[in-house]
Design a protein that fits this description.
This protein is of the alpha+beta class. It contains four helices and eleven strands; from the N terminus they run αααββββαβββββββ. The protein has a nine-stranded mixed beta sheet with strand order 4-3-5-6-11-7-8-9-10, covered by helices on one side. The longest helix is centred in the N-terminal third of the chain and has 17 residues, at about 10-25.
């Protein structure tokens, strides 16, 4: 869609919502948005309603923290297919807290050929060696497709207990648990209940710099 007429505060709101969904899997609260742009919750709500009417935001009224950018919206820092958001680091050892950054990685020739869009992809830098046997090493960049579900055997970005992210094979079990399985015999699988787990993305590629 063409860039709508937005105020600086509205652009800030959109950017915060996008970045939060990439790094945490859910949108900020109205209070968090208000604190960030220096206005009240009521004013934020008015901005959000205006952005929904402009077609920039969509939400599920029956679900908290469900605000997300319209699939057709392209923010100014996304107007090159080669610029994929680098949203932080991901543990490939023990889980660590995901950290948001505002960098980008240019991967046009590999993951965003001409005519494609990159609004559903993001990049994480790997920390640790638990996925070394599938050729994902410490310091590599994993290219991920943003998803909230995965198939058995896929390598996922998994958020454990809402604050710890890790990169592992996704192995759902018949007893209702999920094994987050490493690719290194020195590590044990992380066993969690499904209600403790949020899938944030699926690994679709790896980039390594020498």
């Amino acid at each position: 869609m063409s860039q709508p007429n937005l105020t600086p505060k509205q652009m800030k709101i959109l950017t915060m919502i996008r970045d939060s969904r990439l790094s945490r899997g859910y949108s900020p609260t109205m209070q968090e948005l208000g604190d960030a742009i220096g206005v009240s919750k009521v004013t934020v709500f008015e901005h959000v309603e205006a952005l929904i009417k402009k077609g920039c935001l969509v939400r599920d009224k029956n679900k908290a923290r469900s605000l997300e950018l319209s699939p057709d919206l392209e923010l100014p820092d996304e107007q090159r297919n080669s610029r994929i958001p680098l949203v932080g680091s991901i543990a490939a050892g023990s889980p660590i807290e995901a950290v948001e950054t505002r960098e980008h990685l240019d991967l046009e020739a590999i993951f965003a050929p001409p005519g494609s869009r990159n609004t559903s992809k993001f990049v994480l830098k790997v920390r640790g060696d638990s996925m070394i046997d599938c050729h994902i090493a410490d310091g590599d960049y994993v290219i991920c497709e943003q998803r909230n579900a995965a198939r058995a055997g896929e390598i996922v970005v998994a958020l454990v207990d809402n604050d710890e992210a890790t990169l592992k094979y996704y192995r759902p079990q018949r007893d209702g648990t999920v094994h987050l399985e490493p690719a290194n015999d020195n590590y044990e699988p992380i066993v969690v209940r499904k209600d403790q787990l949020q899938i944030q993305g699926v690994c679709i590629g790896v980039v390594r710099a020498y």
